[in-house]
Structures are given as structure tokens and as C-alpha cells.
Amino acid sequence: MKKIIYSVFLIFGMLSNAFANDNISVSVDFSASMGGEQDGRLLVMLSNNNDREPRFQINHTAKGQLIFGRDVTDWKPGTAEGIDNATNGYPLPSLKNIPAGEYYVQALLNRYKDFNLSNGKTVSLPPEMGEGQKWNRKPGNFYSKPMKVTIGENGAQNIKISMTEKIAPIEPPKDTKYIKHIKMKSDMLSEFWGEDVELGAHVLLPEGFDEHPEAKYPLMIFHGHFPADFGGFSETPPDPDMVPTYSARFDLDGYNVYQAQAAHDFYKKWISENFPRFIVIEIQHATPYYDDSYAVNSASQGPYGDALTYELIPYIEKKFRGIGEGWSRFTYGGSTGGWEALAVQVFYPDEYNGAFAACPDPIDFRAYTALNIYDDKNAYYYDGDYKKPLRPGHRDYLGNSDYTIKDDNMLEAVLASKTRSGGQYDIWEATYSPMGDDGYPVRLWDKKSGDIDPEVAKYWQENYDIRYILERDWKTLGPKLKGKLNIYVGDMDNYYLNNAVYLMEDFLENTKAPYYDGDVDYGDRAEHCWNGDQNNSNAVSRLNYNFMYVDKIMDRIAKSAPEGADLTSWRY
Asked: With contact defined as beta carbons under 8 Å apart, do 461 and 452 qualify?
């Protein structure tokens, strides 16, 4: 019996060695024609297929391909920087774990620059270049063309790569009759970052804007991820020759045709005779940490909440004849945008008159996705006496989980150090954490082990846990927020965001001084990002944000507008 067991272990060891090469390394260089000395994150990616470039196949799902990364500083052109077995990787931890076979390999440098902050600290971060903090699409980043390589089972192997390509600048969108694009320098943010910082917005003007110069308009602010242009609005119908494509997300054939028709239908609704006249804006506020700032003030990103509320929005209202008073402003959005819509309403209660928050990011950190940051000791594992199961990170509507919180964080750790990955957990940290002595956000948990820092968790609670803040300050906030809070989520949200909404609802429904007098609703078996539409699927309702809350907004205006408010100039 002992001989049989020994033989099994011996065979397994031989097989394991057959799939590994302990001497793999990758060396990467770039020429002086690409630029001078560089700081940034060197990323090397390998894919077992040629469906797309490897840089577009990196994710934390079962189909995600291989990536390895390390920081580089003062990298001189013409010299090589290396990736070896000691370099952190995902989903395989090291180059030596790569199975023998054929791969397409690609290198990319996510370039950093120094920011000299007003507090005297200097941080090295990837600047926003108009793409919304996407490292694989960021203009100016260096990369190589994919190269086919064969990785053998034995012997030393050095793969040499030259980065010869630079991602091109992004063409800015063009103005139309209805859609305008604006940028403005923020004095508040420029002071914080030590250089000029711009805020932007895509502005949808109402029908009859030019014909009614006397009219002033309410403002609807659509929060969400970095928008390249104002989406879901088209003056022209779909091209009859449009080739239908399949949407894997919604399992629908021809979804592109449906989207195009929905955009044109919105245009027709927008110009119809009885549709209320509003200004709608989608804001651009990407930071060196993420595709948007989360619309609040934070230690590491600066006073974005104040800049948006007191600089950008008044600038837009002045330029496009907004009413410019708190009763005439409404916020809405989903996911990140859902959190932002709710947060700005809570943090600036007099400046907005209603928030419609769909599938919001965690609004109670006792349900920070699948963990409680106050009571749990570890973010990655459930605590147990004899085993420590991994916490799920993503599920489908039947509850099947396909990756974990640890997976998300391990990929972020490869993409960048010091909270610079542009990933979801890193941006929460960049927004909610205090700034460390080195100028970067303090980790809520150790990225490798998952162990939670209770002091950082307490800072998050006092400053950004929306449910906690509401309960703590309801005596003063309650009267200002009565009738303004509306929250919607699917009860099978892919990221477990419904759990925090349950906790929020418990507080809101059981607090009577005053009663919140808003709306909390759930979609049965609905995934991310259900937004309150009980009659249509996510595939349909996600295209309707810009008009689905209009009736509730009009009702809110009728109930709450102050005496003498302009309720007529914009109702033509």
C-alpha cells in the first residue's frame, strides 16, 4: 500500500514538472523614438488564443488569460526590464506555473507621471488621457504587437519583446443640435493636485432651447462611469443594413439593433409635445485612480464632491440657463452611479431634490459585497475552525459563483501596487481611505493575506458608510431628505449589492422622526443593474434611465418647489 501511494506522488510530481519551466523569463525594451525615461507598471500578458490581443483578454473570469506585472522607475530607452519567476502573476502566480504550449505574448507599459500635491507629497500615478482610466486603451501607453511563442517543458527560455507601438489619442466627440460637450478648469481640484485639472460634461439640451430664450430648466444629473459621449440618444433611426450582433451579457440576438432603435425612440420622446423640458448631463470626472471620482471629497483624490456641486454644476446651469436652485436638481444612476447619486444627495442635502439610486455600490459596509468590514477579520475567507472557504465575488441569478473577492484583488495586485490598478476594490480604497504617509491611500486590508485593518474600517464608517451616516445624523439630515431617497436593486444582484440595501431599508422603514417617505424596491431574481422597472428586463430598462424617473421627478417638483419658483417657463 505504501509503495502504491509513493508511486502516485512520484507520477504526480513528474507530471507537474512536465507542465512547468523553472527558467522562463521575459525581457522588454523600447526605443528612444518612443520617449525618454519612463516610470510605470510593466505588464506582460500571454494568451492561448489569437481571438483578440492579449491586453483585451485580461479579467478575473474563468476565460481570463495570463498577466504578470511589476513597477519600473527611470527606465531608459534601449535597456531591458525583466519579468521572471519572482514576478507576481494572475491567475497563475508565477511564470514557472505556465503549462508548456503555444502562446501569444504581449507587453504593455502603463505610464505614470508625478503629481506634486498641495500637501507636499508627491505621488506617481497614471494620468487620465480621455479614455476613462483603461490601462489597455490609455493614449500614450507603450505596447508590443502580439508575438507567438512556444514554451517548452525543459531548459532555460528567455522571451525578448520590443514595445514599438503607442496608443493613439482619442478623438473628442462633436457637438450636435441637442448634445454639447463642455470642459472647465476646477480651481479646487487644481489646487489639490498641483496642476490644472478639468471637469467635463456631456449636456443634452431640451427641445426648443434656442426658440425659448426666456426659459430656465431643471437639471437631471446622470451619474455613472466615464462616458465617451452622451449615449442612448440618436436623431436618426437605425441603419436598415445594420448587421445584428449577439449580446452575451443579455443572451440576446440583435441587441445592437435594439439599442439603436431605443436611442432613436428616446429622441422622439424627447422632442414630443408633452414631454417635460429638462437639461440632462453626464459628468466626466476621471481621476488618476479611476474612471470617476465617486463624486465625493476624499483624502487621496481631492474635493471632487465640492468641485462638482459648487463649480461644474453651477457653470453648466449658467451656460445653459438652468434654474440653478436645489429644488430643481435631481440625481440618478446605476452601480457606481447609484452610489454617487445617493451620496451627493446625502452629503449635499440642500443642493439636490431627489436621488434615484439603482443597484448602488455598498451603501452599508456591514454588507460590503460579501463581507462585513467591521466584524469580519479577513476579506477573502470565511472564518472557521478547520477550513476557511473563499468569499464569493460574483454570481448569476441562480446563485452560481464564478469568481471570488480574492480573485478580484489578486488581479488588481498584478495590475498595480499602491491602489493604482483602476480596479473596483482599489477605487473604493482610493475614495474611502485616509491618505498614508507616502501619499497613497491606506489599505483597508492587506492585499496578499486579506487581513482587515479595523482602524481603517472605522475611518470608512465615519466618513463614507451612507447608512451609518444617515442613522448617526438623522436628526438634522432627516428633515432635509424627506421624500428624496429612492433605491432600487435586484435581489440576485451579481455583486451581492442587495444585502446592503436590505440593511438600509431596515433603517429607513423603522425611522419615523421623520419617516423618509421615499421608495425602496427589489427586482425578483434580477441581476446587476436592476433600476426599478418591474415590467422590463435589465436589457431594456438600462436604456431608459433618462426618462424612467420623469413622472416621479415631476411629482416631487409639484410637492416641494418653494413659493414663487419657476414652474412654467420650461413647460412649453
From this structure: no
Q: Based on the domain organization, do 79 and 137 belong to the same domain?
A: yes
Q: How far is CA 526 from the centre of its chain?
A: 20
CA quadruple 321, 327, 329, 330: dihedral, nearest 10: -150
Same domain, 162 and 185: no
Q: Is the pLDDT of residue 11 over 50?
A: no
Chain centroid to Cα 89, Å, comes to: 23
Dist CA 474 CA 468 (whole Å): 10
DSSP string computed for 291-349: SS-TTSEETTTEEHHHHIIIIIHHHHHHHTTB--SGGGEEEEEETHHHHHHHHHHHHST
Q: Which residues contact 414 (CB under 8 A, 6 or more apart)?
A: 43, 67, 68, 69, 88, 89, 90
Rounded to two decimals, what is the model's pTM?
A: 0.93
Q: What is the pLDDT of residue 12?
A: 35
Question: Which residue is associated with the grid cell 523569463?
Answer: 25
Residue 50 lies in a domain: yes
Calculate helix-pair angle for 498-509, 466-481, nearest 10 degrees.
Answer: 40
Rounded CA separation 558/347 (Å): 24
Across 488-508, b (16+ Cβ under 10 Å) vs e yields: bbbbbbbbbbbbbbebbbeeb
Residue 495 resides in a domain: no
Q: Does residue 569 form part of some domain?
A: no
The cell for 174 is 462633436
**How far apart are alpha carbons 475 and 477 in whole angstroms?**
6
The per-residue b/e assignment along 372-384, b for 16 or more CB within 10 angstroms, e otherwise, is ebbebebbbbeee
Residue type, 315: Y
C-alpha cell at 233: 440618444
Phi, psi (5° rounding) for residue 523?
A: -95, 125
- b (16+ CB within 10 A) / e for 70-108: bbbeebeeeeebebbbebbbbbeebbbbbeeeebbbbbb
pLDDT digits (tens, 9 = 90+) for 122-157: 999 999 999 989 999 999 999 999 999 998 876 558
Work out whether strand 219-223 and strand 329-334 pair parallel, antiparallel, or are unpaired: parallel
Cα separation, 284 vs 293, in Å, equals: 9
DSSP H helices, 403-528, are 405-415, 424-432, 454-464, 466-481, 498-509
Q: Do 202 and 346 fall within a single domain? A: yes
Q: How far apart are CA 264 and CA 459, in angstroms?
A: 46
The predicted structure's pLDDT at residue 237: 95
Q: How many domains does the chain have?
A: 3
Burial of 434 (0-12, 13-18, 19+ CB in 10 A): middle
Cell digits for 495? 455583486
Domain ranges, residue 425: 366-462
pLDDT one-digit tens code per residue, 143-196: 999 999 998 876 558 899 999 999 999 999 999 999 999 999 999 999 999 999
Q: Looking only at Cα atoms, what is the longest distance across the chain? A: 93
* CATH number for the domain that contains residue 291: 3.40.50
